[in-house]
Amino acid sequence: MFSDKLRIFSGSSNPKLAEYICAELGQTLGKIKVSRFKSGEIYVHYEETIRNCDVFIVQSFSHPINEHFVELLVMIDAAKRASARTINIIVPYYGYARQERKAAPREPISAKMLADVLTTVGAHRVITIDLHAPAIQGFFNIPVDHLTALDLISDYLKSKNIKNPVVVSPDAGRASTAEKLANYLDSPFAIMIKKRPAHNESVITHVIGDVKGQTPIIIEDLIDTGTTIVNVVESLKERGAEDIYVCATHPLFSGPALQRLDHPFIKEVIVTDSIALPETCSDRFKVLSVAPMLAEATRIIMQGGSISTLFKNAGV
């Protein structure tokens, strides 16, 4: 269905996702050698010609994020020097996105720095999912296709026929997403008010909305250590809520997050495969694949069309 100029390659962060994307497109995953010297330096060699080809590189900025970021840079540079026509990077999870502004003097804006480096090295287009701050798209001077897993998650939740659902935003920053999900599910929504004494720490101070006797559905863009989610879950239970569904696009799951989230008050943790998860997860975790969406986005980029047709809300 495509010209023979399409090539899809995977970095080491999430090769299974790259394979699923290729399967959706009827393509073969490109052959590439990625290795490390004894010193830790990264070596990349494309083992097939990519001259005048449209190259798509799949790499999530998951742990270890700095390794995966530099690996992607080396892959982009190798593709550029091999005379690829375009270099399109599929970054399902864009790391450093929580550092998108200066919250205190003498802090970096790391999300902007990453955008500058990717562009300078030679990327022509970025395809990503559920940025922590949508304004990060403006950090790039190249096209950014910002996709969302909200339709995927909402369709799954609808299939569960949850009794008395209430969508919960764990903070004011996610209120817009919570409202969209609540509209999809035709349910009310609530907002948690919290303060952060330090990174990866939070304290719930207020809940705006009624959750007593309801089944909360927490919606987040990412889950890191799981501490905030567990605090939210326990606060909701203290206010008379039923057992809780937790939804997030990006399962970072740092440290003991998997153990924390295997919590008796959590009915199910619904995430996507934007980041590779260990196969030893408990049955409490449900993983939805973003491969069909990324494959369709790739098809649209190659053949022309509107990315917005992928979503229920055409304004996405």
Report the total helices: 8
Poorly predicted regions are none
Helix percentage range: 25-40%
Q: Trace the largest sheet across and list its strands.
A: 10-9-8-11-12-13-14
For the residues shown, what is the average pLDDT? 92
For the secondary structure, the number of strands is 14
> Regarding quaternary structure, how should these chains be classified?
single chain
Largest sheet: 7 strands, mixed
Distance between the termini: 27 Å
Q: Tell me the radius of gyration.
A: 20 Å
Please write the string of helix (H) and strand (E) elements: EHEEEHEHEEHEHEEEHEHEEH
Principal-axis shape:
globular
Class per helix and strand makeup: alpha/beta
Percent strand equals: 25-35%
Describe this structure in words.
With 316 residues, the protein is an alpha/beta fold. 29% of the residues lie in helices and 26% in strands. The protein has eight helices and 14 strands. Strands 10-9-8-11-12-13-14 form a seven-stranded mixed sheet, sandwiched between helices. The longest helix has 17 residues, at 65-81. The protein is globular, with a radius of gyration of 20 Å. The protein starts with 5 loop residues before the first strand and ends in a 13-residue tail after the last helix.
